[in-house]
Every structure is written in C-alpha cells, then in structure tokens.
Design a protein that fits this description.
Glutaredoxin, 7 strands
C-alpha cells in the first residue's frame, strides 16, 4: 500500500511546478518594473567617443548643470525606431536636452539612422563594445535615464518610452530637476 504513493510523487511534483509557472504567466507582474539601482544616485561615469565627426567626447560634463535625458539606442533596434519620434518631439517641442549613446553600433549605421529619422541628440556618443552600458546597468536597448541638474539619476526606463511616460514622468522630472 505504501509504494503506491511513491508512484504519485513525480506527478504531484510536476503539478506543483506547472502551477507555479501558470501563476507566473498569468499574474499582473511587470518585468519592466524591476526598478533601477541607479535611481537616486549620481549618474555613472560617462566618457564616450563622439558619434558625429568634429564634436568632443560625451562626458560627465554633458550631464551637469541642467536636467538631461540620456538615451541608449542602436540602429539595429526595432523598439528604438518606435520611440525615436517621441525623442524628437521631446527635444523639439519641449526643449529637452537629450544625450544619445549608440550602443554596439557602427558609427556609419548610427549616423544613417539619425539622418533617416532625425537627430534629437544635443550630444551623441559611441559605446561600441558595451562597456559604458555595463556601468549604467543596461539590460538592452532602448533604455532612457532622466538626470537632474546635479547629475542625480531620477528616472530609468527599460524599453521604449511612450507619450504617457513623457507626460506623466519625464516632463515633471525635467521641470523638478532644474
């Protein structure tokens, strides 16, 4: 009689594991809301070679003295193309200072991307090997940070930003960060 229960043990274990996975898939958890260790802390060191010829390197000085939006992008990134019009409007309509970092991108490809879609970046730098991205805690592109005038990270968005993000979070943070 006691050996019959041993045959049911693997089935019960499988049921528990399947139940956990079903709960994980159907719960209202948002993986983008995992937060960021950078929020509330000084922005990481930034020293990126310039994307556009004839410009200076994009450094920490680019992030001080006024609120700044830092956007990591790539020409090969489809979500980057989706969010690009929002960055254009943020720079043109709202007058935001937007700094772009081309992540693991060839300079010619990144420049062609900006020529085709418009260039919202006051400063644009290169991160060809992803070392800057590691310091900033990137999990992929696009990722966007809002930094106040003192160089403190106030917001971090994983994935493409939306008009709602601009209206509800980014613009208020830029105004408060002056």
């Amino acid at each position: 009689m006691s050996t019959r229960w041993l045959y049911l043990l693997p089935l019960a274990t499988l049921g528990i594991v399947a139940g956990f996975f079903a709960w994980s898939l159907t719960s209202d958890r948002n993986p983008a809301s995992i937060g960021s260790a950078l929020v509330g802390r000084p922005a990481p060191t930034l020293n990126a070679a310039p994307l556009r010829e004839g410009e200076t390197a994009v450094t920490d000085a680019s992030l001080r003295g006024r609120p700044v939006v830092v956007n990591f992008f790539a020409s090969w990134c489809a979500p980057c193309q989706l969010e690009h019009p929002i960055l254009m409007r943020l720079a043109e309509r709202e007058g935001a200072t937007v700094v772009g970092i081309a992540y693991k991108n060839k300079p010619a490809d990144a420049l062609a991307f900006l020529k085709r879609l418009g260039d919202p970046y006051k400063h644009a730098g290169l991160d060809p090997d992803g070392k800057i991205a590691i310091d900033w805690g990137l999990s992929g592109v696009p990722e966007t940070y809002v930094i106040d005038a003192r160089g403190i990270v106030r917001l971090h968005f994983r994935g493409p930003i939306s008009e709602r993000d601009v209206k509800d979070s980014i613009l208020p943070a830029l105004k408060a960060g002056s």
